[in-house]
Amino acid sequence: MTSSGRRRGRRRSGGAGAAAPVATPSPQVPSPFAHPAEAEFARILDFYGIQWQYEPRSFPLRWEGGQIVEAFTPDFYLPEFNLYVELTTLRGGLNTEKNRKVRLLRQMYPEVRVKLLKKRDVFRLLAKYGYGPLGPDDMPEVDRVLISPGRLQQRVAELAAEIERDYAGQPLVLVGVLRGVICFMADLMRLLHLHADIDFLAISSYGAGDEKGVRIVKDLEEDVRGRHVLLVEDIVDTGMTLNRVLDHLEEKGPASLRVCALLDKRARRLIDVPLHYVGFEIPDEFVVGYGLDFRQRYRNLPFIAVVKHEHLP
Ligand code: 5GP
Prior knowledge:
- The chain has six helices and 16 strands.
- By secondary structure, it is α/β, with parallel strands linked by helices.
- The strands form four sheets. It has a six-stranded mixed beta sheet, with helices on both faces. The protein has a five-stranded mixed beta sheet with strand order 1-2-5-6-7, sandwiched between helices.
- The structure holds guanosine-5'-monophosphate.
- The site of guanosine-5'-monophosphate (5GP) has 15 residues, from strand 12, helix 6 and strand 15.
């Protein structure tokens, strides 16, 4: 938040593989930060699983007699976005000085991407990279982001490419299981350069574990006899739901029946069900977002996030 020299040497990385802080913690602002706004920014980045480095690099701006007499050290570097971030307050004087330095930095190092960010702009920046619309404080039951919007989009595109290769020239029917599949289905189908009809099943589950039963509450509207069917699922946990749905679809006599699941909680499987295409294998956590809910909330998050254990039944 302030000029560079004062804090040189206190560097820290966050997100995956964070290094240990090296400065003595102060009671108000956690180490290594000099300002509460920096600690808050790091907390938000950690929540989203976005990697960060704290003051990793100083950029010399002015020399006198071969000595560096002015430098600028942006507060953060976000490697995934290849972006340096300098946080600003609303106080005018300091900002004028920062603006001058950032302008100079951009002129002298045109390859470096740097952004001056006010507190209120943090979520606007994150929204630009696909993280919005809610901030951590709007999601009290959510612990952290597990799969970022970028990784989701990339993997969905890879799955679409695989499916396209396998079904080349053959029309297919995509069957989604409501409601958790909506985001995945919508993204996947738009990437398939194939003739693909779509249809949906709705189910209701009752009981739990071995006693779990699944009832079809909305059946297909398309006749799938003799057609290639690709069942699109949000998440496979014990496998009970998928097993029941596959039995139901088999009875309709499709030419072929395959499964594409976005998420696979393989460690919890009770019934061995065939998954032909899998987006991500995930740990035994209850997840929300990208169509998946917790008590009907959080379906509209553009990422997959983990629900805090204390909120689960
Ligand atoms: P299974 O029958 O495989 O045990 O469970 C599959 C269904 O349980 C999914 O279609 C989904 O509705 C629900 N489910 C299982 N795990 C999760 C999870 O982590 N989050 C959410 N939101 N739903 C889940």
